[in-house]
Amino acid sequence: MLFVCMMTAIVASAQNVEEEEYIPDSIAIDITVDSTAVDTEGSIPDIEEVEWDDRYAVAEKDGKWGLYDVKCDSLLTDLIYDEAAPAFRKRVFDEYITYYYIRLDNRAGVVGVFESTGGITTILASQALSLTADENWEDSVKVYRSLVNDGDTEAYWKLALCHLEGKGVKKNFLQAIWMMMLADEDQDYGERAEQLFLSLPENDDNRIKFEAAKAFINGDLQQLKSVNERLAPVDPANHELVSGLIAMVEKKKEDAQGHFNKASEMGCTLAELFKGAVSDGYSDEQHIQALEKIAEESPFVYNFLGDMMLGSSKWGKKREDKAREYYVKADEYACLSKGGKTFLESKREKNE
Predict the structure, then answer these.
(1) Rounded CA separation 239/233 (Å)
(2) Tens digits of residue pLDDT in 121-157
(3) Structure pTM?
């Protein structure tokens, strides 16, 4: 359910145009154009680059930079960046993307141009996350959470990258995905996350887990098995978890239980929940306990616990109090859902 918002993979056909066609007869506006690729060694490790293509370039005027389409002799973006430089070119499925490093105020990042469409995608670079002078990641996380409370949705994205890379918080893929969803819920839902993961090397554990989640949500069992083979050497615990999910889909209950047990022994907390799902006599109380344990590592789960309290009368008269307790915990970690936020606001209005 975490990945239902993700867009499907890019399958647009790349255009093959000879280099001579990219050279315009004249530049229509008074700018300086530079299409020279720069050496990225040491900046972005493990990027599988392909042969550079000078269809696109960076443009500068009066100290401001933008991206430029050399073939069409026109700007792709306004001249808004304080700095821009060609970086690398990468193939993603059947699409080619040309990337540029950019800097805007105190933020740095990478802008990608989809060569078949001229579409733009922007990804913040890791080194641009910190807002503190000493780059103390723990303090930065506190700043981002405070910004979320002030209504800064971009701070969700920064928190997501912190969780993804283990900067100032424990590395947590699921928590990162949740924060990305909150960041983009009013925009192109999950598009930036899609592009971020697909820009990673194919053997990157985060990319593999993303692809596995997509395959599971899409019900593509063959693709899930294929991705799970790649997951085994980089994340054995989650490999066992996904093996259990595959066995569940194939209705092999004993096999699923065995995989979930192994995943749990390896420290995969999420496996506890699935262990219960395939066990006879699994009680509602055990379900709650398993979710509470998961929420200690992935606080976004407190939202689901709150929803459960409100969604069923079986929890008794105190269920709203318990729901509020869970939602408040989610809010402490700046990952409160829209439903949880509405619930807490209604309680404040009633002074309850």
Answers:
(1) 8
(2) 655 444 334 444 445 778 778 888 888 887 888 788 8
(3) 0.63
